[in-house]
Amino acid sequence: MPRARDLGIEIGRLPPGPANAITDVDGVRVGHTTLIEGESVRTGVTVVLPPLEPLFAGAHRINGNGELTGLEWIRDSGLLTTPIGLTNTHSVGVVRDALVAAAQQGGESPWSLPVVGETWDGVLNEINGFHVKPEHVASALEAATADAVAEGSVGGGTGMICHGFKGGIGTASRVGEDGWMVGVLVQANYGRRARLRVNGIPVGEHIGPESVPLPRHGLDEGAGSIIVLIATDAPLLPVQCERLARRAAFGIARTGGMGEHSSGDFGLCFATGNRGLETDEGELALRMLNDRRINPLYEATIDAVEESILNALLAAETMTGRAGNTAHALPHDLLLEALSR
Q1: What is the CATH number of the domain that holds 194?
Q2: Per-residue pLDDT tens for 249-286?
Q3: Catalytic residue among 91, 153, 263, 308
Q4: Which one is catalytic: 24, 233, 265, 303?
Q5: pLDDT digits 0-9 by tens, 7-61
Q6: Residue 211 catalytic?
Q7: Is 139 a catalytic residue?
Q8: What's this model's pTM, rounded to 2 decimal places?
Q9: Is the CB of residue 252 less than 8 Å from the CB of residue 305?
Q10: Is 225 annotated in the active site?
Q11: Is residue 92 part of a domain?
Q12: What range defines the domain where residue 200 resides?
């Protein structure tokens, strides 16, 4: 499926990385397991693997009606020490436990506190069927690659809906003015149709339910959540990572998200610019980006979040699932027509 830039849509002024994906940050890999079975199984799991060593990290809660496990230790220690899993709301536990088991099989520390985020796919997926199993997490880990990232209705994004269209996984990257890379991956499952904006243009107002029907699910339109993962190779300290994580909210807002009461919206940023943090040495020599040079990273983050959400929408295809509920894809021709107005 074409991505935003394939359609001539460019978000912001900063250039993307080679793959325009979170994997443009060296050492980051992504894997998916997608479960589509029968009439009502529409779910899966996505794993994001940073370099397997402690990394400085920071997180931000935009609205807290959701889950991203392990955040208290990240806030307290400033470190991310595990892979990150993304799945549906009722599969967080099994994904977390499977990541613990994988760490033990890999001979890592006997202590593990994995980070697992969720959004609710119960419109299209029989969420209480608990279809995600440990072997599906293992498959996603095995499939993890630094190559191009599959987007749309894949992995944890399989059953997700975004701004009244089929949503899911999306990714993008930016190269900041000082050459630092910022990569973003989202699991997008939020937003009202009429609020959808692309490059500031209210495209959702022009693609109404008379053109593309809204999903039938009995929930308040706009109910849902988004998880935003941000990676950078800049030498950031934990407080700076947290500041980047906060900027995820700006990218979500630019697309029309507002962190509604029912939303679980979280940003998590990790930085690979300081390595070798796991040591018995009494002192560590660290690098820190001058705060006066951090604004380009904010810009890179905001633009990459917006483009990641758009890429998720563009890659996702129309899907029918549980109880015959259907989430229609965002039609590319109608999007371009709306933008041309």
Answers
A1: 3.60.70.12
A2: 999 999 999 999 999 999 999 999 999 999 889 999 99
A3: 263
A4: 265
A5: 999 999 999 999 999 999 999 999 999 999 999 999 999 999 999 899 999 999 9
A6: no
A7: no
A8: 0.98
A9: yes
A10: yes
A11: yes
A12: 14-207+221-276+284-318
In a domain, 40, yes or no: yes
Measured CA to CA, the distance from residue 248 to residue 262 in angstroms comes to 18
41: in domain? yes
As to burial, measured by CB atoms within 10 angstroms (0-12 exposed, 13-18 middle, 19+ buried), residue 157 is buried
Q: How many domains does the chain have?
A: 1
